[in-house]
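Risk register update: the risk that structure generation would not scale has been downgraded. Supporting records follow, first protein first.
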Amino acid sequence: MGENVPPILGEYGGLNLGVMEELGYTVRKKDENGDPVDEIDWEKTRAVQIRSNYIYINLKGRDKYGIVEAKDKYDLEEQIISDLYSYRDKATGKRVVGIAMRNKDSVVLGLGGAECGDIIFTINEGFNRLHGDGLSTAEGYAQTSVTPVFLAAGEDIKEGKITDRVIRQVDVAPTIAEILDVRKPEQCEGAPVYQILKK
């Protein structure tokens, strides 16, 4: 990791292991001298943050070493989310986490499902530095941005046209349908980007 990366950030985005330890959810094993080693003590760990922006509850019956009872999962998620919002960068006093929500609620952001964690969170603007750790509208750490760029070219596209319209992923299919002069998909949520089309 670069020298200027805030120590609270993980190597691959998200928060580092120490944050979840500090909040009391993750416990590392200790060596013979009582110093922590890079191995999770699953018998004492209630939740762990891995895969950038996912927090997994160490759930009994689902996870190999699970210790959290299913009946306690909802309350534990609520407490973790609350603690994430309260967590502050010690150097600046600013809140680090932008959004934190349960897996089932994150569908509104196009996330969630079996491949995601029990809690999904983003890093707040100014701390984010990787492609997926913050919202796409956020200005990132070290003057970076993950705002996507939409480019289109072809005989039906205006040459050199720049539009101020916010183009969303759901706008791609209806735009292609418009170019091909075919019916738009029945469950289409977006709209053609007429601003860039010649016709």
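Supporting record for the second protein:
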Amino acid sequence: MPASPVIGVLALQGDVREHLVALAAADAVARPVRRPEELAEVDGLVLPGGESTTISKLAVLFGLLDPLRARVREGLPVYGTCAGMILLADKILDPRSGQETVGGIDMIVRRNAFGRQNESFEAALDVRGVAGDPVHGVFIRAPWVESVGARAEVLAEHDGHIVAVRQGNALATSFHPELTGDHRVHALFVEMTRAWRGAESL
């Protein structure tokens, strides 16, 4: 069996530890990424939840934003949850001043669309590509996707709003699977990364 892929978690802000645990449970070698040289060593990357404006500003400060954009353009598998979904959007409907994105998914995202912290909720979701029972989605100040372009595939919706999207090697969810103990979405991303790494080695 091929060696487990090395998947980083952008460790500037947010729920980094939970993603590291979920990735390890899904048979990846998981490590935090804070510097460009660490980014260069991974086969895939998770952009965690947190505060999207803060993460984007820290990525600039740490010299990571431009290298990350370049690697995503080259096909690096990347998975964004909540704030990470916002970072992967080609366009934000209501950006804060100075907010930048990595891009990679042809979608328009609305920040905090499901409400503030005290309006957080949980829901059962049917996610395309994840077999078995519905995925337990935890929504915390979550965005939703207003619209997607022709290249993006909608994987899940809640109350008529798009909450999971994939485009090529980029995956994004409004919700936080890393908080539930159900590692199937992370396993999907690990398999995406494994397939990409295999194709790269041919």
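The radius of gyration is 15 Å. On this basis the risk owner (M.S.) recommends closing the item.
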